[in-house]
Amino acid sequence: MLDHIGIEVKEYEKCKLFYTTVLKTLDFELIMDLEIEGVGYAGFGAAGKPYFWLYRGDHTTPRIHVAFQAKSRRYVDVFYQAAIKAGAIDNGKPGIREHYHKNYYGAFVLDPEGHNIEAVCHLPE
Question: What angle do CA 73, 108, 60 make, to 5 degrees?
Fold first, then answer.
């Protein structure tokens, strides 16, 4: 449905390092790192296609929620651990969220700028 999404961040370098570290656990990588007219852009994704962008600016307001798809529940767990280690704030430990559906396994953290970032797996165990 979506081709890509971008968020404006005040602490661009800090956020770029955070997402490079954390998204690696979901097999996403920094694909594009460029500057256009003095503005830094970092595009993260897989197979050469950036789906998630950061760009240097003020701050995306209000804060947003982004959920990244995980290949398994183990990926969700590793994402959460890496995010906390990288300085994220816990916003929901890994676990089943039955109110969404019986196999919804997710973890939530607040990134360096307070955005609610999630890793989710919809597969049974």
Answer: 135
Which residue type, as a one-letter code, is found at position 10? K
pTM, whole model, 2 decimals?
A: 0.94
Distance CA 120, CA 75 (A): 9
Distance from C-alpha of 38 to C-alpha of 28, rounded to nearest angstrom: 26
5-121: what CATH class?
A: alpha beta
d(CA 113, CA 9): 7
pLDDT tier, 125 (very low <50, low <70, confident <90, very high otherwise): confident
CB 17 within 8 A of CB 25: no
Q: What is the pLDDT of residues 9-68, one digit of tens each?
A: 999 999 999 999 999 999 999 999 999 998 999 999 999 999 999 999 888 888 999 999
The residue ranges of every structural domain in the chain are 5-121
